[in-house]
Amino acid sequence: MERDKIIINVGRQIGSGGKVIARMLAERFGCKFYDQELLNLAAKESGFCEEFFRQNDEKKGFFRNLFHMHTPFMNANSFYQNDFSQENLFKLQSDAIRKAAAEGSCVFVGRCADYVLRDNPNSFNVFITAGIATRVRKVAERKGCTEAEALKRIEHGEAQRAEYYNYYTGKHWGDSRSYHLCINSDILGIEGTALAIEEVINKKLEDK
């Protein structure tokens, strides 16, 4: 890893605080932060409407959903001008990730960024977990729902993430072999987890 260029790819379980931790890391390392922002970037680069990417974010079956939509998700003639398929929509987003990474230090949340940037020597991949009780409580608080409903949201959302990741990478979502560091945010809390990841990355930079 180059000291002046850092790419941090954050995978996360729902309710683990992964997005908050990723944003903290972006602030501490002076990186651009890409979560939903990546959808806007991919839309600008591709000519497809951002809402199309948003509706199908991290879902493997988004192509089949197109014909059930009643909103103009594509700009004029873009359906015919682009090579339109699930794989090519994934490619559009992957191209946006590579372009952002080439321009400077970044933190990416999800969207197979660890796989897309697997050959980038400046990449550091981390996966953030937490106990199910913690995650259910946080989702219930955030969504204003019961814990039973929160558990269903978690199970459904993570099944979609895993299917998407596994399909496009040929690997298994959350498998420790895909990451430099896997960490449970229950142990140190959100702030402490961000600090621990920062220390590991700094140590890796020093070793280089």
Q: Can you offer a commentary on this structure?
A:
- The protein is an alpha/beta fold.
- The protein is 56% helix and 12% strand.
- The chain has 10 helices and 5 strands, in the order E-H-E-H-H-H-H-H-E-H-E-H-H-E-H.
- The protein has helices at residues 18-29, 37-46, 50-55, 62-65, 78-81, 86-103, 113-116, 132-143, 147-169, 185-207, and strands at 7-12, 32-34, 106-109, 123-129, 181-184.
- Helix 1 runs parallel beside helix 10 and helix 2 packs across helix 6.
- The longest helix has 23 residues, at 147-169.
- Mean pLDDT is 84; it is low at 62-83.
Structure summary:
It contains ten helices and five strands; from the N terminus they run E-H-E-H-H-H-H-H-E-H-E-H-H-E-H.
Topology readout:
Layout (H helix, E strand, L loop, with lengths): L6 E6 L5 H12 L2 E3 L2 H10 L3 H6 L6 H4 L12 H4 L4 H18 L2 E4 L3 H4 L6 E7 L2 H12 L3 H23 L11 E4 H23 L1
Parallel strand pairs: 1-3, 1-4, 2-3, 4-5
